[in-house]
Design brief:
The complex is a heterodimer of chains A (231) and B (734).
Chain A lengths: L1 E6 L6 H10 L3 E6 L9 E5 L20 H10 L4 E4 L1 H8 L6 E3 L7 E3 L2 E4 L16 E2 L2 E3 L3 E3 L2 H9 L3 E6 L18 E5 L5 E4 L17 H14 L1
Parallel strand pairs in A: 1-2, 1-3, 3-4, 4-13
Antiparallel strand pairs in A: 5-10, 6-9, 7-8, 7-11, 11-12, 12-13
Chain B lengths: L4 H6 L4 H11 L5 H10 L2 H4 L17 E3 L7 E6 L2 E9 L1 H6 L1 H17 L4 E11 L5 H21 L3 E8 L8 E11 L14 E6 L9 H4 L20 H17 L4 E6 L4 H13 L2 E5 L12 H6 L5 E6 L4 H10 L4 E8 L3 E6 L2 E7 H4 L15 H6 L11 H9 L8 H4 L10 E3 L6 E4 L6 E7 L2 H6 L1 H17 L4 E10 L6 H20 L4 E7 L3 E2 L2 E2 L3 E10 L15 E5 L14 H7 L10 H16 L3 E6 L4 H13 L3 E3 L8 H6 L6 E5 L2 H10 L4 E6 L4 E4 L2 E4 H17 L2
Parallel strand pairs in B: 4-5, 9-12, 17-18, 24-27
Antiparallel strand pairs in B: 1-2, 2-3, 3-6, 4-6, 7-10, 7-11, 8-10, 9-11, 12-13, 14-15, 15-16, 16-21, 17-21, 19-20, 22-25, 22-26, 23-25, 27-28
Helix pairs in contact in B: 6-7, 6-9, 7-9, 15-25, 18-19, 18-21
Classes of the chains: A alpha/beta (231), B alpha+beta (734).
Chain lengths: 231, 734
């Protein structure tokens, strides 16, 4: 599997994603937002950053970028797509995922360690993870509070589309572990088919022991294994 | 026609300076020429009062590649072809008026200095000073500055990995906001900010030019006054998104197409004027600019306004003629405006035209040769009395445990987490040691090496003894770096002082520069870049003299870096001095401020001993026997030990150690040249240190849930709570 790491004007986690993917043996190419082609077997990564400065609404302008049409087709064809932080915001704005990321409850930017506990057990991104524990994935955002109307949240819960909730190392979901006030402690959600993941924390930052932790690699490895199984 | 006082005041030029300009020009200047000369002769651009002292700075060393003053920032050699460039700069006055935008554009400005050299910014640090946070106005400034730094740095994707903040009443109304940036790259990609090659075009890239920031350099060079809020238009507004595109485009140009260009220069203070003139001066050329070709964001701007605008996020590129189209296409691909606004000439003149009309034509030599005013210092009249006060005449501490808890929760010593959790300190995946310790450590992805970076300065020490205080600032910054296992390589300084025309301020400035230069020489950390911010005066008086030091050290193997966190079961050893210390070591200390709410005594430092102790710690680190290290600074031995215990999540029993007959000196005194190290082999560590002439005392073993040090006995839960919540509780007040 290869990764297509998208770069919008203002994206800054593209380099970190390329680096982290390399740690688990996935080669990547950077794809400028004006490009229009994505290969069917590519893992599409929408990295973090402040696309277009996030001056209007996070992700609101990036969704009009030419590459997003290719991302939509890729998702519809069952290809893997992961949006991290600003990438999650872009996927919501592009209606590939429901809901919206609002200003943190603290009204402040937060950069700190957070643990996320897998909820869904079947998606390519989560099937290789252990649901009894938390995975350390740092958060770094000012607008990461996941919100949706009550019916949508219920639908996500009932259809097993909650990918991760904020929790503790030993897998407990607690209000204290929630860094931004997300509804139901939601850190990541899936689309209906489970091939599109939006995730607020940064698994690409916990990719090496030297940096403190390598829990984030489990998500990439899960995707890698799922694709291998599918072939 | 005699120029009127108001016009001169606007450009901060004195009558004498105007007479000098007339003399050099041999005619009256046009208004554009006067504006250009005023900006370049301002203290901010021209260093009129500080340059005569720069000869004190040691400027060379084994690692130095680009010396201070040669380019926008200094550069050091990290080995294997890798280079680090770094610089610190002030944005004090803008931040006093508009804390968010002032701090944000301070970050933007220092970033441009770094990527103008073709290097990728990898770290930001901020050295901040405010009045006491018990005052609402200071809290407002504090919140705004922190938000502004985060707002810019977080958006652009450069981690803010460190810095420090200290509160003192002398900073009320005139906060200090010093931003430092470190860039890394390949030596062959280093660029020069030089307008070389007669006939080459001048290309302005980035934001359109507006009326913001006109006279910003001037504003930075006069005292803040009650009517300073009228200067608010002199504060610029930042656009970090535009800067991100500029940064990527400029770094890519350096890395892939260096042969297309002769030079790259940022636009900072005094905008296009200083940018073009400095670039021409560097190359020994001249420049001709047509302001009509400068894209504007405001209508009806005069040539004067265009030349002095400090609109942010702009760069001046000097392409080789034959690659002009390549360069323009390169910036267009990054979705940036790029326009030819002029040409490099061979006449060493700055010629400014508005279409066909020449509005200024002035020799570069005049503009870059501001008058110099060697400071004439007079030692403050009451300094002898203050220094000679017998600190032992004050009663000793009675409740040492209570004093420790109060210190840990104080606004100057409590955890800085409230600040740094608002900064992205991890992006780029290089942050090996995060904020919260002595220095941040970053790895170089393509090698085993790493760098340690720290900022430091204790203005309380400098005001009590400017020479010793200047030396202490350097020593402390170096200790921070050494505590991670890195060897100091070079430093940048940001000289924040009051009005240098006052004799006692001139004394502080000169003495502090001599002191910091002595320390830089002895500790082998030459000064490779810097900035002077004078006229830091609020209605309440001058700020504490604050020569902020930004230190960079090199770790040959980044996997061996140390943090301040010991393992449970490690022994803690005090290196550098014995535990007992006299009351004289309380001079300028946090404890003195807490106990007396005033400063007295005379701080001292023995630089030869400092160098010996730092060498010993690095040698011990090289033996692999250390598991953690921490320098002793604000709050002394007790606070440093508590910080290590908090990091470990465990206490220590050092109740039995000899503390001498002056408890406050031993526990909270701030004698210099001391470290705490953690080790599983205390005997060997102490023996090696003592063999190197460094006193060593084994304090105890990390473990348990109480911190005991001489008479101090506190529950770790209480110490941790005080330290973790201290700043949050102060800042939570409305």
């Amino acid at each position: 599997m290869r990764a297509a790491v998208l770069v919008f004007p203002g994206t800054w986690s593209d380099g970190d994603c390329v680096w982290a993917l390399q740690q688990v043996g996935i080669e990547s190419r950077r794809v400028w937002h004006r490009e229009t082609e994505i290969a069917p077997d590519e893992l599409v990564v929408l990295p973090g950053g402040f696309s277009y400065g996030d001056y209007l609404r996070c992700g609101a302008i990036a969704r009009f970028s030419p590459i997003m049409e290719a991302v939509r087709r890729h998702a519809e064809a069952g290809g893997l797509v992961i949006g991290i932080c600003n990438g999650f915001q872009i996927l919501c704005e592009a209606s590939l995922l429901p809901g919206v990321l609002m200003r943190n409850e603290s009204l402040q930017f937060r950069c700190q360690d957070a643990y996320i506990v897998p909820v869904n057990q079947t998606s390519p991104f989560t099937s290789g993870l252990d649901a009894d524990r938390g995975y350390m994935t740092p958060v770094s955002h000012g607008e990461g509070r996941y919100t949706a109307d009550e019916a949508t949240v219920r639908m996500l819960e009932d259809s097993d589309r909650i990918a991760f909730r904020y929790g503790t190392l030993d897998g407990r979901v607690t209000p204290e572990a929630n860094p931004n006030g997300s509804v139901h402690g939601i850190a990541g959600i899936l689309n209906e088919r489970g091939n599109v993941l939006g995730l607020m924390p940064h698994p690409e930052r916990s990719c090496e022991a030297l940096l403190g932790n390598e829990d984030g690699n489990a998500i990439w490895r899960s995707a890698l294994a799922a694709v291998g199984a599918r072939v | 026609m005699p120029v009127d006082d108001h016009v001169l005041q606007q450009v901060a030029m004195s009558r004498d300076e105007y007479a000098r300009l007339l003399d050099l020009l041999d005619r009256e200047p046009t208004d554009v020429e006067l504006g250009m000369a005023g900006a370049l002769w301002s203290e901010h651009c021209g260093y009129k009062h500080s340059r005569p002292l720069f000869h004190h700075f040691p400027s060379t060393g084994p690692y130095v590649l680009t010396k201070a003053g040669e380019e926008n920032a200094g550069a050091i050699d990290l080995g294997d072809g890798w280079v680090a460039v770094f610089k610190m700069e002030s944005h004090n006055h803008p931040s006093a008026l508009e804390p968010y935008e002032g701090a944000a554009t301070g970050v933007g400005g220092i970033l441009r200095d770094i990527f103008a050299m073709g290097m990728r910014p990898v770290a930001l640090l901020d050295s901040l000073r405010f009045g006491p946070l018990t005052e609402r106005a200071n809290r407002r400034l504090f919140r705004g500055v922190v938000a502004g730094i985060g707002g810019y740095g977080n958006c652009i994707g450069v981690p803010t990995v460190g810095g420090e903040v200290q509160m003192h009443p002398a900073y009320s109304g005139n906060p200090l906001v010093n931003a430092m940036c470190v860039g890394i790259g390949r030596r062959e990609h280093l660029l020069s900010a030089s307008a070389a090659g007669v006939g080459n075009p001048l290309v302005l890239v980035g934001a359109d030019t507006g009326r913001d920031g006109i006279h910003g350099a001037t504003f930075a060079s006069v005292e803040l006054a009650a009517d300073s809020s009228e200067r608010r238009p002199a504060v610029q507004v930042g656009n970090p998104f535009m800067e991100k595109l500029l940064m990527e485009a400029c770094c890519e140009l350096a890395e892939q197409h260096k042969d297309w260009i002769e030079g790259l220069q940022d636009l900072g203070a005094a905008g296009l004027t200083s940018s073009a003139v400095e670039a021409a001066n560097r190359a020994g050329t001249g420049i001709e600019i047509d302001v009509a070709r400068v894209p504007r964001r405001a209508q009806g701007m005069t040539p004067y306004e265009v030349m002095l605008s400090e609109s942010q996020e702009r760069m001046l590129v000097i392409p080789k003629r034959e690659h002009l189209d390549d360069v323009l296409a390169h910036f267009r691909r990054w979705e940036l405006h790029a326009d030819v606004i002029g040409v490099v000439t061979n006449d060493r003149m700055a010629t400014i035209k508005d279409g066909d009309q020449v509005v200024a034509r002035i020799p570069i030599g005049i503009l870059v040769d501001p008058p110099q005013y060697p400071p004439i210092g007079v030692r403050p009249a009451d300094l002898d009395r203050i220094q000679n006060e017998d600190l032992a005449a004050q009663p000793d501490v009675t409740d040492a445990s209570g004093a420790l808890l109060r210190l840990l929760g104080s606004e100057n010593l409590a955890s800085r987490r409230w600040i740094y959790r608002q900064y992205d300190h991890q992006v780029q995946n290089n942050t090996v040691v995060r904020p919260g310790g002595d220095a941040a450590v970053l790895r170089l992805k393509q090698s085993r090496r790493g760098i340690a970076v720290s900022t430091d300065c204790n203005g309380r020490m400098v005001v009590l003894d400017p020479r010793a205080g200047g030396a202490i600032a350097v020593a402390e910054a170096a200790r921070n770096v050494v505590a991670t296992g890195a060897r100091p390589a070079a430093l940048t300084d940001c000289l924040n002082f009051g009005n240098p025309e006052k004799p006692e301020i001139a004394y502080q400035l000169e003495e502090a520069i001599i002191g910091l230069s002595e320390a830089a020489r002895v500790l082998n950390a030459p000064v490779i870049s810097g900035n002077a911010s004078l006229y830091n005066e609020a209605p309440g008086g001058s700020v504490l003299p604050t020569p902020s030091i930004g230190m960079v050290g090199i770790l040959q193997d980044v996997t061996t870096r140390l943090t301040i966190r010991p393992n449970v079961g490690d022994s803690i050893v005090l290196l550098g001095a014995d535990v007992p210390q006299g009351a004289a070591t309380l001079a300028g200390s946090e404890y003195q401020w807490l106990a007396l709410a005033r400063l007295a005594g005379r701080p001292r430092i023995d630089l030869a001993h400092e160098a010996r102790v730092q060498d010993a710690v690095l040698t011990l680190h090289g033996t692999g026997r250390l598991t953690a290290a921490h320098d002793l600074a604000d709050g002394g031995l007790a606070v440093a030990l508590a910080e290590m215990c908090i990091a470990a999540g465990a206490g220590i029993d050092a109740a039995g150690i000899e503390v001498g007959d002056r408890l406050d000196g031993a526990l909270f005194g701030e004698a210099q040249s001391r470290f705490l190290v953690a080790t599983a082999e205390p005997g060997a560590v102490a023996a090696l240190a003592e063999a190197a002439g460094v006193p060593a005392t084994v304090l105890g073993v990390v473990g348990g849930d109480r911190l005991r040090l001489g008479p101090i006995d506190v529950a770790m839960a209480d110490a941790t709570h005080a330290w973790e919540t201290g700043l949050d509780e102060i800042i939570a007040q409305i």
